[in-house]
Amino acid sequence: MTYDIAIIGAGPAGLSAALNSKIRNKSVIIFGKDSEKLVKTKKIANYLGFKDITGSDLNENFKNSIEGFEIKRDSRKVKTIYAMGDFFAIEIENESEMLEARSVIMATGIELKKDLLNEDKFFAKGVNYCATCDAALYRGKKVVVIGYNDEAVGEANFTSEIVGSLVFVNMTGKEVSLNSGIEVIEGEIPIGFDGEKRAEKLIFKSGKEIIADGFFIEKDSSKPERLVPGIKMEGNHIQVARDLSTSIKGLFAAGDITGKPYQIMKAVGEGQVAALSAASYLSKNN
Questions:
Q1: Confidence (pTM)
Q2: Nearest 10 degrees: Cα torsion 248, 250, 256, 261
Q3: Is residue 210 within 8 Å of residue 190, measured between CB atoms?
Q4: Disulfide check for 143: which of 163, 169, 259, 276 has CB 3.0–4.6 Å away?
Q5: 112-130 residue pLDDT tens
């Protein structure tokens, strides 16, 4: 099935975009899980119409707003979005088939954590972001997985069955259950990579180093320019016009990823604008 609009991100901007896209009679799929940033917020005092509401309750209200509408929810991780002219091919992590959409709205939020030193320099040169996708490239070799989220544990366990040896740098802040044979590093802070033509070692703040053949960084979000090849950026944000269109025809963006202020009301409003713009784009390109 080819969807009219695929929305990447299920936070306030994504849910708003989904609702307003569906009201315009578009077929919609939305990728992503609940916004952890919103759910963990203890108190919100500046959202119009809701006084001193918790982030968790506001998130439930947002989700309740789209109940009863035929909106496909998908919690799988989108790996890459390819602009194919009249449609977009969406690559899902660990899946062989591509999903297609006529338009895309990016509402991924923004990753405020800084990249590790030389992370960009060695991207695809020993530094990767999908262990289950690329583990086969390191069969029989030594690999390091730097895990920032719960999914990293499963990725590490899977990868350990393919590679020669695996070191897991635990940045989750939790105890982890890993396959036997996996070396776990706790309490160390990675700061960057070093090497000649490719990443050869991971360096920690303490001065500790790990030499390996490959390194996987498992965290919740990827940079937009990696997710959507060729998209124009302004610093850490996607470059958008007033109608929230991007440099790629048929692709729109909303929420924190378009720039400050990082506010819920701004995200919800931009989700609506992006949906209206996407619907208008589709009407003109039938």
A1: 0.75
A2: 90
A3: no
A4: 163
A5: 666 799 998 898 899 987 7
